Amino acid sequence: MTDLISNLQWRYATKKMNPAKSVPADKVARIVEAIRLAPSANGLQPYQVIVVNNKTMLEKLKVAGKGQSQITDGSHLLVFAAWDNYTPARINHFFDLAIETRGGGDEAWENYRQSLIKNFGQRDSQANFEHATRQAFLGLGVALVAAAEEKVDSTPMEGFDPEAVDEILNLKAKGLKSVAIMPLGYRDEANDWLLKQAKVRRSSDTFVINVE
Ligand SMILES: Cc1cc2nc3c(=O)[nH]c(=O)nc-3n(C[C@H](O)[C@H](O)[C@H](O)COP(=O)(O)O)c2cc1C
């Protein structure tokens, strides 16, 4: 078995974290870096990751998170906040960054830029937000794997009130909407009821369709 597969078997959506243990900054940084390296449609990275490790903020966010204890028992909370819309300014920022990084910027690149500005501009903001949300969830997936590789416990969460989280973190003013949150911490081995439960996954026979 590879380390990757054994780490994915080790990880689980932790229900009870040990509040006495804090995740070291270098581990948090590597998890966040893995998210930054995640792919996204057209490379636009249409979301922000907010790293919260302020106790007062975490207490407020726990209320918005339906009281889920991992939010305050973990030492850090990652908030995935998707763009509320694709705007020309946001698209231009990526295209300018690519020119700055790679040099050049020929006619084909400029045509590509204009086609994205046009295509996203023709869709309503809800469709664009949902598209951005899908990209943020790719980041969430990478974060879950990266945390497992660091032997850091985590819980992917959609069970929260996004409007309340947006209010606490002042996201609306930044054109962002929270779509997922993920506490980072360490499992409370004595008190987590889920720890001793076997992982439930469909067999590969029923999960995978092979076309040969
Ligand atoms: C998008 C998403 C949202 C989830 N929301 C919550 C949540 O709000 N609270 C929670 O305790 N677990 C949540 N989970 C955890 C899932 O229930 C869990 O990942 C699933 O049952 C598989 O178990 P495992 O992660 O332990 O292998 C969520 C998982 C995902 C992927």
In short:
Helices cover 48% and strands 12% of the residues. The protein has 212 residues and is α+β, with helices and mostly antiparallel strands. α5 (88-102) runs antiparallel to α6 (107-122).
Rounded average pLDDT: 97
Biggest sheet architecture: 4 strands, antiparallel
Proportion of residues in extended strands:
5-15%
Cofactors, ions and other ligands in the entry: flavin mononucleotide
Radius of gyration, in angstroms, nearest whole number = 19 Å
How many angstroms does the end-to-end distance come to?
25 Å
Structural class, judged by helices and strands? Answer: alpha+beta
Helix segment tally: 9
CATH class: Alpha Beta
What general outline do the C-alpha atoms trace?
globular
Oligomerization state:
single chain
Query: What's the total count of β strands?
Result: 4
**Known CATH architecture:** 3-Layer(aba) Sandwich
User: How do the helices and strands follow one another from N- to C-terminus?
Assistant: HHEHHEHHHEHEH
The CATH homologous superfamily is termed NADH Oxidase
**CATH T-level topology:** NADH Oxidase
Strand order within the widest beta sheet: 1-2-4-3
Proportion of residues in helical segments: 40-55%
Protein model, in words:
The chain is α+β, with helices and mostly antiparallel strands and 212 residues long. The protein has a single domain (3-183), classed as NADH Oxidase, CATH 3.40.109. 48% of the residues lie in helices and 12% in strands. It has helices at residues 3-10, 25-36, 55-64, 70-73, 88-102, 107-122, 125-149, 162-168, 204-207, and strands spanning 47-52, 76-83, 153-154, 176-185. Helix 2 packs across helix 7 and helix 3 (55-64) runs antiparallel to helix 8. The longest helix has 25 residues, at 125-149. The chain is globular, with a radius of gyration of 19 Å. The mean pLDDT is 97. The chain binds flavin mononucleotide (FMN). Flavin mononucleotide (FMN) binds at residues 12-13, 15, 68, 155-159, 180, 199.
